[in-house]
Design a protein that fits this description.
This protein is of the alpha/beta class and 385 residues long. The protein is built from nine helices and 18 strands. Strand 13 and strand 14 form a beta hairpin. The structure holds flavin-adenine dinucleotide.
Length: 385
């Protein structure tokens, strides 16, 4: 055996899985196809502190480019709801490298420029064939992202509702002072069916704007182009320097399904777990459970399912509530969105706290008190079920 565990993909999920498994005593080989960790970067460029807290991690100044206070959710007619939620605009390449360096210190054998091609089970062990030869292990953790080839090669259908993957494009842009504000801006409505367009200040003159759509094909380009023109008008900009364009799929509204088998665990976007923080937490759970299974010399599905049990305890309700919320949004007319946003406009929402279920109940109770008829707008969820 070359190693106890092979992790495929130095993604947020893969880096955490490798670190946790190694810290618990397993030997770990982490394979990443990029020649250099974090480059070319993934388009993700920000996260909220709350997400990082869930992983027990602290943001590091080496990758934070701008500190944000929260977000504004803006309706089609320009009504604004402000939500306090500290967050960070990040340099994703620096973020990946920060964690890669950290995990190498724990003893993970990280190999860059190694592309996994196939995985074969031979009895109780796996042979992972790569561009740098074959490696053998008892257990394989797949964290190769949303377009995961490896999980599907092994016959796993890792997510429910893959048709609901959001396809997005992020543009890094520059214009005088554009990076200075302290709030993310999310614009919802039918100009971006199924989700949003965004403005994320990145400090100084730097910002990112993005468009994310669902069920409109995999190219968000036409929506982004329209957003660029609209954004220029909104911010009174004559010209906008476009520095970089990155795109991809985000499983925000999918639900993790079949992501564990004998000797196999899938984590992060590959398992329909969306977001950097959520992928990191999934990786941590995965790494802990994997190392315990290796110690017990039992990597059967029934043992590895502890990962699913913990994940579901922490996130299942949140995933389902998120899906219901974004599906309702996708089906609402612009007018309905405006009326819904009006209920929360200029309100102090700092009372909302606790678990996702508690937060949903608090929002529901608030609507019931302030404008019960607004709850009827949520019927949009039932359209075309
Ligand atoms: C446009 C866009 C913007 C987003 N913005 C944000 C954001 O701002 N904040 C946020 O929290 N989330 C954001 N997301 C979602 C978030 O990026 C993902 O949920 C998160 O990156 C998931 O990470 P991951 O661990 O699953 O894998 P990924 O980050 O996709 O990494 C997969 C890794 O596996 C490697 N790999 C793939 N195949 C192989 C192979 N065969 N062999 C070896 N290595 C391989 C890849 O090179 C890559 O390094 C965004 C998504 C998109 C598409």
């Amino acid at each position: 055996m070359d190693t106890d565990i092979i992790v495929i993909g130095a993604s947020p999920a893969g880096l955490m899985a490798a670190r946790n498994a190694c810290e618990k005593g397993s030997s770990v080989l982490l394979l990443e196809k990029k020649e250099e960790i974090g480059y070319p970067p993934h388009p993700a460029n920000s996260f909220f502190k709350g997400m990082l807290d869930k992983c027990g991690e602290k943001a590091d100044p080496s990758y934070v480019v701008h500190y944000l206070k929260g977000m504004k959710i803006i309706s089609p007619s320009g009504r604004i709801v402000e939500v306090e939620a500290p967050g960070y605009a990040i340099d994703k390449t620096a973020f990946d490298r920060f964690y890669a360096k950290k995990i190498e210190r724990t003893g993970v054998d990280l190999r860059e420029g190694v592309k996994v091609q196939t995985i074969h089970r031979e009895g109780e062990n796996f042979t992972v064939n790569t561009s740098a030869g074959a490696f053998k292990s008892k257990l394989v953790i797949i964290s190769d992202g949303i377009n995961s080839k490896m999980a599907s090669l092994l016959g796993l259908k890792t997510m429910k509702h893959p048709e609901d993957i959001a396809w997005g494009i992020e543009l890094d842009i520059r214009s005088a002072g554009l990076g200075k504000p302290k709030m993310f801006e999310y614009y919802v409505g039918n100009h971006a069916p199924g989700w949003k367009t965004t403005y994320a200040p990145r400090g100084g003159d730097n910002a990112a704007i993005g468009a994310y759509v669902r069920r409109c094909g995999t190219d968000a380009g036409p929506y982004l182009n329209a957003w660029v023109e609209n954004f220029k008008k909104l911010k009174g900009l004559e010209e906008l320097e476009i520095v970089r364009k990155l795109s991809g799929g985000d499983p925000i509204v999918t639900i993790p399904e079949d992501y564990i088998n004998d000797g196999i665990m899938v984590a992060g976007g590959a398992a329909g777990q969306s977001g950097i923080g959520y992928a990191m937490r999934a990786g941590q759970i995965c790494g802990d459970v994997a190392a315990d299974a290796v110690k017990k010399r039992d990597v059967s599905k029934s043992v590895l399912q502890e990962y699913q049990r913990i994940w579901e305890k922490e996130f299942k309700a949140e995933h389902y509530l998120g899906r219901i919320g974004l599906e309702t949004l996708r089906k609402m007319t612009d007018r309905e969105i405006d009326e819904m946003v009006k209920v929360f406009e200029k309100e102090d929402l700092s009372f909302i706290h606790g678990s996702s279920v508690e937060q949903a109940m608090q929002v529901f109770a608030f609507m019931l008190k302030k404008k019960p008829s607004a709850i009827l707008k949520c019927r949009a969820f039932l359209r075309n079920l």
